[in-house]
Design goal:
By secondary structure, the protein is an alpha/beta fold. It has helices at about 75-90, 105-115, 135-140, 155-160, 165-180, 200-215, 245-255, 275-280, 305-315, 325-335, 360-365, 375-380, 395-405, 420-430, 440-450, 455-460, and strands spanning about 1-5, 10-15, 60, 95-100, 125-130, 145-150, 185-190, 220-225, 260-265, 285-290, 355, 385. Helix 1 packs parallel to helix 2 and helix 15 crosses helix 16.
């Protein structure tokens, strides 16, 4: 038993269990949880670990590495433009601390060069490489200080994919890490498939060895806990290997990995990416890895913009982030890249703060706070809108006019105004004749121009671009 003073908790704690590598003849595939022919099970052991949020928490980005592998490849211009927007979003305090790049193709190299030439302190450019001499030289040539290295940690990968024993896998990984350390590069070890791994039989013993190397070299070896298949759960009292808080606590308590050297990488296969990521923060992980709009293979990664909002929610401050950049990022993906963002996607979808229901529109007319999640106009530069259809009523049409033409408070139209009833008659006629789609902005604009040219001209005067 090891008894020592814990400088963070300010109490004496005991450490009576130091896991060592458990070599096994057959892989531990956790068949009680992952039977493949059934939905994966969530098991509880009723063990709880303490919340201990790091003093500083950050976001990192892998849009240009993990993210773009799942969509049409970005051009160099796309990468540079998006990198600039990420820089703006993260703000001067570097809440978005790093961005991860490939270094292989000519396009990759040119994009990295142009991003480095911008001279931004944040997000720092990092890389992801294969473990060979040539790739390490690429990192050195670019002057990049940190690189990601794949160290798959579940028996699914060690036995079934790589045909190695656990000892052979660990020896291979440690040799790769030493190659990075010898070159003065910070290795970021990507513990792939951690939520199906043998946590105490391989994950923690490997992390203990990494921390030994970190202390010997003086280089802060980082660990990225990769929930590759989205199996992580955040319910209190859940069992390893699926417990997010258990994974983070185990790294910190058993392997003594500092919070600032821990990163969580989540996938959204079971709709849990954002909650799992926030849970990792709460239980001692400093950095959450993300992609813009959550792009990534299968169901995607943790959305960067979601964690920016989550950061502000947990900290009570944006800490310098410019959240209006979220809207510009969404517009860029739509207009410049041609990416189709599902309209109901929170914060970035075209309809995320749009209502069709007349009763909701009536509430918005009286006070936006009734039906808008926060001041989206101020915070995201996305004022709430309504879409007019068969259910919008007078309130919906009124709100559309007031918001579409950006009418000042003193000029806003009342829902009892005659023009509202006239437009509603035209709308009702459309649906009485069998229409099933909503009324477009262009159609409503034309209706107002036809029914009341004077009011239309007055409304258009408040727009920066007149119709």
């Amino acid at each position: 038993m090891i008894v020592k003073y814990n400088s963070k908790l300010h109490i004496i704690t005991e450490h009576n269990y130091k896991p060592s590598l458990q070599e096994v003849a057959n892989p531990n595939l956790h068949r009680d949880l992952f039977s493949y022919g059934q939905i994966p099970k969530v098991a509880f052991n009723m063990r709880h670990v303490p919340v201990e949020v790091p003093k500083e928490i950050f976001i990192s980005d892998t849009t240009f590495r993990d993210g773009q592998q799942a969509i049409e490849p970005f051009s160099v211009e796309n990468i540079v433009d998006l990198y600039k927007l990420i820089h703006r979003l993260g703000g001067p305090n570097g809440i978005i601390r790093q961005s991860e790049f490939f270094l292989y193709s000519d396009k990759d190299k040119k994009a990295v060069e142009k991003c480095l030439d911008l001279g931004y302190e944040f997000p720092k450019v990092t890389s992801w490489i294969r473990a060979n001499e040539k790739d390490f030289q690429l990192v050195k040539d670019f002057g990049i200080k940190e690189t990601g290295i794949l160290v798959s940690c579940s028996d699914y990968h060690i036995f079934k994919k790589m045909n190695l024993t656990r000892q052979q896998a660990m020896d291979k990984y440690l040799a790769i890490v030493k190659m990075a350390l010898d070159r003065g590069i910070v290795p970021r070890c990507h513990f792939e498939d951690i939520t199906r791994a043998d946590y105490f039989g391989f994950v923690v013993p490997f992390a203990i060895e990494l921390m030994k190397l970190s202390r010997e070299s003086g280089i802060p070896i980082k660990i990225r806990a990769c929930d590759t298949m989205g199996y992580g759960v955040s319910y209190p009292g859940t069992s390893l290997p699926r417990s997010v808080q258990g994974i983070i606590y185990g790294f910190r308590y058993y392997a003594e990995v500092p919070s600032e050297q821990l990163e969580w990488h989540g996938h959204n296969d079971f709709y849990k990416a954002v909650t799992n990521s926030a849970t990792a923060w709460l239980y001692g992980c400093s950095t959450i890895n993300t992609t813009l709009l959550g792009i990534g293979e299968r169901t995607g990664n943790t959305p960067l913009e979601a964690m920016c909002i989550e950061y502000a929610s947990l900290r009570g401050t944006t800490n310098g982030m410019d959240l209006t950049a979220i809207t510009d990022i969404a517009d860029y993906f739509t207009n410049e890249i041609g990416y189709n963002i599902p309209p109901q996607t929170p914060f970035v979808g075209n309809n995320f703060n749009v209502t069709k229901a007349g009763i909701h529109a009536d509430g918005l007319l009286k006070d936006q706070e009734i039906y808008n999640i926060f001041d989206t106009g101020k915070i995201l530069n996305r004022p709430p809108r309504v879409i007019v259809d068969a259910f919008s009523g007078n309130a919906g049409i009124t709100f559309w006019i007031n918001s579409y033409y950006k009418l000042p408070t003193e000029e806003k139209i009342d829902k009892s105004a005659a023009i509202i009833s006239k437009i509603k008659e035209l709308v009702d006629k459309e649906y009485a004749e069998g229409r099933t789609t909503s009324i477009s902005d262009k159609e409503l604009d034309s209706m107002l121009a036809t029914l009341d040219p004077a009011l239309y001209a007055k409304c258009c005067s408040y727009l920066t671009k007149k119709h």
